[in-house]
Amino acid sequence: MRMRFLGSTSEAGACPTLYETDRGTIVVQGLQVTDAEALADLRDVLDGETAVEVPRELITEIARRVLPDGGPATPFPSSEATPTVTG
Fold first, then answer.
1. Is 79's pLDDT higher than 80?
2. pLDDT tens digit sequence for 38-50
3. Nearest to residue 55, comparing CAs of 37, 32, 30, 35?
């Protein structure tokens, strides 16, 4: 699997960060949720799965950049331009 950086709301490469894969999926890099109450709210967690917290503004900004005008996503790999979100 190959991944392409989509963007981050963090400075200096810190988490959270989103990537697009050549399999048509999104990979989330971020800090693992460890709060016991929050983890109890998860459903059907399989072995090897975990929860990662991502700011809503990162998801909406990346969606806006990857899906301009509400059109279909550009398949991996796309143009040379790499969207970057920082905040």
1. no
2. 999 999 999 999 9
3. 30
Question: What's the rounded Cα separation, in Å, for the pair 53 and 24?
Answer: 21
In this structure, are residues 29 and 44 in contact, taking their beta carbons and an 8 Å threshold? no
Q: What is the 3-state secondary structure (H, E, C) of 60-86?
A: HHHHHHHCHHHCCCCCCCCCCCCCCCC
Pick the closest to residue 66 from 55, 50, 49, 79 (CA basis).
79
74 has pLDDT over 70: no
Which token pair is 70? 């509400």
- CA distance linking residue 75 with residue 6, whole number of Å: 13
